[in-house]
């Protein structure tokens, strides 16, 4: 519980056997529920995620990080969580930053809060140069397609969403794989959600991995951006029912 909010932490995980146990163990005590969504890992991620604090949900097939998060969101709703927070299974999100993501929702000034690593002074030394360039380009594009011109670091997955905002989304329609944050932001705009950025610390291990590479930059992320942009514009131009 945090400032009278029931908090559920959703951890999507695919082949994270080396990191998932530590990730679960370091989730702050303010989290009422920890929901690990094992996205059909081929290693022992599910076994290592097992904890008295955590519920592990395993997908029968790999559907992508977006689908795993949607599963976690549904479970958070079933548990009557006031806020659902997403933390990656690879330990690249600082647990100490969790209150900063929750405060705008607790204050009633935001419906969706996302981390912005570019606000942290360590970004230039912690994030690999190739990722800085890729994230900056995608963030600039997402500002246009989502309609949220004030947000940056669109690919940061450290987020918190209110129960009310979740109820305004059709989780079945969310993009399932890489590009899901870009798609989600556009859908939040259509739903009228207030989105804010907060500073979070960038963390990268010795063997950093990224789903963003030349292949995803060419496809599917540009297609996801165009798709979400078109859907947002169409939804906003559609006549409202009285």
CATH class: Alpha Beta
Order of helices and strands: EHEHEHEHEHHEHHEHH
> In CATH terms, what is the fold-level topology?
Spore Coat Polysaccharide Biosynthesis Protein SpsA, Chain A
Q: What is the strand content?
A: 5-15%
What does this structure look like?
With 242 residues, this protein is an alpha/beta fold. The protein has one domain: Spore Coat Polysaccharide Biosynthesis Protein SpsA, Chain A (Alpha-Beta Complex), CATH 3.90.550.10. Helices cover 39% and strands 15% of the residues. Strands 3-2-1-4-6-5-7 form a seven-stranded mixed sheet, with helices on both faces. β2, α2 and β3 form a beta-alpha-beta unit. α6 packs parallel to α10 and α8 packs parallel to α10. About 2% of the residues have low confidence.
Compact overview of the structure:
This protein is an alpha/beta fold and 242 residues long. The chain has helices at 20-25, 45-49, 65-78, 98-106, 123-126, 129-146, 163-167, 180-190, 214-218, 221-237; strands spanning 7-13, 33-38, 54-58, 83-86, 112-116, 159-162, 195-199.
Considering the chains and any ligands shown, give keywords for the structure:
single chain; 242 residues; alpha/beta; Spore Coat Polysaccharide Biosynthesis Protein SpsA, Chain A; seven-stranded mixed sheet; 10 helices; 7 strands
Map the helices and strands.
Blueprint: E1 7-13, H1 20-25, E2 33-38, H2 45-49, E3 54-58, H3 65-78, E4 83-86, H4 98-106, E5 112-116, H5 123-126, H6 129-146, E6 159-162, H7 163-167, H8 180-190, E7 195-199, H9 214-218, H10 221-237
Parallel strand pairs: 1-2, 1-4, 2-3, 5-7
Antiparallel strand pairs: 4-6, 5-6
Helix pairs in contact: 6-10, 8-10
